Amino acid sequence: MRHYDIILAGGGAAGLSLAYHLSQSALRETSILIIDREVKRHNDHTWCSWLHGPEPFDEIAYRTWDQLAFIGPDLERGFEKIFDLAPYRYRMVRGFDFYRFTRETLCAAPAVDFLRGKVERVVDAPDHAEVHVNAQTYTADWVFDSRYDPANYRPLTRRYHYLIQHFLGWEIETPLPAFDPHVPRMFDFRTPQDGAMRFIYVLPYSPRRALVEYTLFSPSLLPQAEYEAALRGYLADVLGLTDYRIVDEEQDLIPMTEHPSARRAGRRVMNIGTRGGRVKASTGYAFHRIQQDSAAIVASLRRHGHPFDVPTPPRRYRLFDAILLEVLAARGDLGAPLFTALFQNNPIQRIFRFLDEEDGLGGNLQLLASLPPGPFIAAWLRLARRR
Ligand SMILES: Cc1cc2nc3c(=O)[nH]c(=O)nc-3n(C[C@H](O)[C@H](O)[C@H](O)COP(=O)(O)OP(=O)(O)OC[C@H]3O[C@@H](n4cnc5c(N)ncnc54)[C@H](O)[C@@H]3O)c2cc1C
């Protein structure tokens, strides 16, 4: 039975980020075992974040943009704007580069081991925790658990919402220039809504290459053919593209729920990543929140000798998430007009501060006042009645 200071059950974004943050801190001598059921070498994610100031993983950014476009549902009467992001930037890190870079960094650290295997059980004890994998038992002072299986996850939906952000993205190459490589499209609502919030997300890598993603916020998945038809329709009808080659594909789902996730899963076990509630319920973004969480865990370990002293945002942000999810669950058709009002009436920097849960009450009120109140008040009343 081998003992480590720390075991990471799951070595994806959260597990590897925590190990990386430890390796860059005064705790770099910590012995760490990183267990994942996969060998992470493929490009299974493209992680984008709006950021300001230097951040971990800047050196492996695949693309960084200074502008973002928002395009509302109806171009004739609708709203379309290219936002300058300064002091923010929109940064993309590819899974492929993240896994390679963290593995190289961690292999050079004094006491980091990798193990491939499916973690079967994590057992908490007063002064250590056990991890059962590959018919072996490993022990550690602290176990950080990021195992997560969306297929088996169901929150208490009578009290909490559970929508999913589901998407199919095609990285396409065109024979002629078709994209402005300086301007990603964060939301392009020019796709039929059919009662749910649906939009196209475009990350342009060059004039002839882009990731074009059909995304929905809704309760359930679509038949595969519908994602493909929507992408083909957008490329042909909106971008006028029929001649292109699909060079890569990204398809997955992200949970959108305000269900509180237990951070502390025992005396010696802490949940991190999606399992630890790091996905922002109303957007599905998590990568930057995972970096903030990793830094906070390392700071807590240094200060107190335990990892649990991590900040929690003001409670009102969970209420805002719950209200938006209630609106989208009950009236998915309102998603496009509400997001249009949000981007039409606010500087993008205020929206970012709100979504990062960093703005004060004054900024929150300004943002809320820019939105049509009816759907939100109705959603709030429904929520209050249900809870
Ligand atoms: C396709 C996709 C794109 C995304 N894009 C963005 C984005 O642009 N920006 C953003 O902020 N967020 C994004 N997200 C959301 C979020 O950042 C990611 O889901 C992020 O990967 C969550 O980190 P995690 O460590 O919790 O999960 P993961 O990165 O999935 O890591 C969990 C790891 O646990 C392993 N595992 C699971 N069960 C076991 C087991 N029993 N034993 C051993 N190993 C196990 C898995 O193999 C996996 O490697 C995206 C999510 C997806 C799915």
Overview of this protein structure:
The mean pLDDT is 95. The chain has helices spanning 13-23, 95-107, 224-238, 287-304, 316-330, 335-344, 348-355, 361-369, 373-386; strands at 2-9, 32-36, 46-51, 63-65, 67-71, 80-84, 89-94, 112-116, 119-124, 129-133, 136-145, 163-173, 185-188, 197-206, 209-218, 245-256, 269-271. 29% of the residues lie in helices and 29% in strands. It is globular and about 65 Å long. It has 3 domains: 2-66 and 90-154 and 257-304, FAD/NAD(P)-binding domain (3-Layer(bba) Sandwich); 163-256, Alpha-Beta Plaits (2-Layer Sandwich), CATH 3.30.70; 316-386. Helix 1 (13-23) packs parallel to helix 2, helix 1 crosses helix 4 and helix 5 crosses helix 9. It is α/β, with parallel strands linked by helices. Flavin-adenine dinucleotide (FAD) is lined by residues 10-15, 35-38, 40, 45-49, 118-119, 146-148, 250, 252, 254, 273-274, 279, 284-288, 290.
